[in-house]
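Researcher: We plan to redesign the surface later, but first we want a full-length starting point. Tokens attached.
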């Protein structure tokens, strides 16, 4: 997961959520 917490906590949350969806879809 790319650390975007410095840029925006929301972006970090979306990135983590996307990774979760990708993992669940496999």
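Model: Full-length starting sequence:
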């Amino acid at each position: 997961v790319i650390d975007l917490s410095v840029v925006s906590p929301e972006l970090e949350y979306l990135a983590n959520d996307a990774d979760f969806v990708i993992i669940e879809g496999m």
